[in-house]
């Protein structure tokens, strides 16, 4: 089943980088232009300069952005900004956080960082839970070819009802963090290290019967598979390309939080709000709400209404700006089984599946290929910011949904079924730069 191993993590040298918060980042796909600029300002050694470099080089050189990233990465290693751990280890990783929008809702998500042998999905050991997009994989593959390093962790879930793995980690973990940092969302990230061969052997053994579900990092996992195959096709014999860096989290943990990812629709010819609601009436009961931008709480109040409606039936929000806001709840007399008879029953009543099939495809005419190529869609976690994009004319419509339950993620993934892209937003994100897996660095 799952084959994990310790590794010598490349990490920031505390004697050269005093403030870890100035150099680590959110995952590359969560870095907005504003965040990118802020990261650039925070430190000349911020990891954003490698994982998401600017197209125009600061030094005026016009070389390839990936080659520039590789050159900077090598320079940081030569200058000992980044150093390798002294021996192979497994790295317990805790995140203490507050759920967005729920004041006082402190949680701790516990996991550990290690290497995992790459497995094709057909082996039924590592399971995806959602589909991927083409462009991000192309981008990440070029960066991996240039740098020979994984900078962010794949977030993987494993089932362990008895909590054996967590108990082994708890017995072995030191009290003091090896690394600790608070991010811009006020999440406290604490990384410790376990280097004892006996303790590592017990953890590795306890993971051998586990199947893994990718929670976050599908694009990076498939990029790693692509790089492995690229090396094999060229006769490059290096088993380090057969492994990827992962953070493993117990599926039964009460520290898990899934947020929804809302959809922003743009570039639709002739989109009309009144016509949209009229067509939606055949599938949904709709209720219009006042959207009052001068009231700072209108977005949170609407999300509360959406959550309440979603307890009874699949429900969605639709916002088109200028006060046009509606709650759409699936009609009790709508025959979902007939409308979606090409899908397995476990997918037919999931909110995100209904949104893609009934709203995006049927009502708005955005087909699956257009979704894959991101022709008419962008994605956003926060409704206020998404509403601002609609108000500014950057999008025509914001579609809101409730979170996907973790049980639905697990059951469908293990059954070999995938959800649409961006079906889940596991919160908080794993920081990039806490540990780096350099393929040129020995794991033993």
Word description of this protein:
32% of the residues lie in helices and 22% in strands. The chain starts with a strand and ends in a 6-residue tail after the last strand. It has 2 domains: 4-257 and 428-438, no CATH class; 261-402, no CATH class. The strands form 5 sheets. Strands 1, 4, 5, 6, 8, 9, 10, 11 and 12 form a 9-stranded mixed β-sheet that branches. Strands 15-17-16-19-14-18 form a 6-stranded antiparallel β-sheet, sandwiched between helices. It is globular, with a radius of gyration of 23 Å. The protein is an alpha+beta fold and 444 residues long.
Record the SSE blueprint.
Elements: E1 4-5, E2 10-12, H1 33-42, H2 48-51, H3 65-78, E3 82-84, E4 91-98, E5 106-117, E6 126-127, H4 134-147, E7 149-150, E8 154-158, H5 164-172, E9 179-182, E10 188-191, H6 197-207, E11 212-216, H7 218-233, E12 243-250, E13 257-259, E14 262-265, H8 273-280, E15 284-289, H9 298-310, E16 315-321, E17 324-330, H10 336-339, H11 345-348, H12 351-363, H13 368-372, E18 377-380, H14 383-391, E19 397-401, H15 406-414, E20 425-427, E21 437-438
Parallel strand pairs: 6-11, 8-12
Antiparallel strand pairs: 1-5, 2-3, 4-5, 4-10, 5-12, 7-21, 8-11, 9-10, 13-20, 14-18, 14-19, 15-17, 16-17, 16-19
Helix pairs in contact: 3-4, 4-7, 5-6
């Amino acid at each position: 089943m799952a084959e994990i191993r310790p590794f010598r993590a490349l990490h920031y040298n505390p004697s050269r980088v005093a403030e870890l918060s100035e150099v680590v980042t959110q995952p590359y796909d969560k870095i907005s232009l504003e965040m990118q600029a802020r990261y650039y300002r925070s430190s000349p050694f911020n990891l954003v300069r490698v994982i998401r470099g600017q197209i125009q080089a600061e030094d005026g050189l016009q070389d390839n952005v990936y080659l520039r990233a590789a050159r900077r990465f090598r320079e940081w290693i030569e200058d000992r900004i980044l150093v390798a751990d002294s021996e192979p280890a497994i790295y317990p990783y805790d995140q203490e956080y507050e759920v967005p929008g729920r004041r006082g809702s402190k949680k701790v998500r516990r996991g550990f960082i290690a290497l995992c042998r790459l497995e094709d999905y057909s082996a039924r050991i590592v399971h995806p839970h959602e589909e991927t997009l083409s462009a991000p994989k192309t981008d990440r593959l070029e960066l991996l070819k240039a740098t020979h390093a994984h900078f962010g962790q794949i977030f993987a879930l494993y089932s362990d009802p008895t909590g054996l793995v967590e108990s082994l980690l708890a017995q072995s973990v030191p009290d003091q963090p090896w690394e600790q940092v608070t991010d811009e969302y006020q999440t406290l990230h604490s990384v410790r290290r376990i280097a004892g061969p006996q303790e590592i052997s017990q953890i590795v053994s306890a993971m051998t019967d586990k199947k893994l579900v990718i929670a976050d990092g599908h694009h990076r996992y498939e990029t790693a598979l692509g790089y492995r195959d690229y090396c094999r096709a060229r006769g490059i014999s290096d088993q380090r390309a057969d492994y990827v860096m992962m953070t493993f989290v117990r599926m039964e943990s009460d520290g898990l939080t899934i947020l929804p990812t809302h959809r922003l629709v743009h570039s639709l010819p002739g989109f009309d709000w009144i016509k949209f609601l009229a067509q939606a009436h055949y599938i949904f009961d709709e209720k219009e709400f006042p959207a009052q931008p001068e009231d700072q709480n209108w977005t949170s109040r609407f999300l509360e209404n959406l959550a309440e409606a979603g307890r009874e039936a699949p429900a969605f929000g639709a916002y088109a700006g200028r006060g046009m806001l509606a709650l759409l709840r699936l009609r009790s007399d709508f025959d979902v089984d007939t409308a979606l008879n090409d899908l397995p029953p476990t997918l037919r009543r999931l909110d995100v599946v209904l949104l893609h099939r009934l709203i995006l495809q049927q009502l708005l005419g955005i087909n699956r290929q257009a979704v894959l190529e991101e022709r008419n869609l962008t994605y956003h976690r926060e409704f206020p910011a998404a509403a601002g994009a609609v108000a500014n004319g950057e999008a025509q419509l914001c579609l809101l949904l409730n979170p996907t339950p973790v049980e639905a993620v697990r059951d469908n993934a293990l059954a070999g079924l995938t959800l649409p892209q961006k079906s889940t937003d596991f919160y908080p994100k794993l920081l990039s730069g806490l540990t780096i897996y350099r393929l040129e660095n020995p794991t033993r």
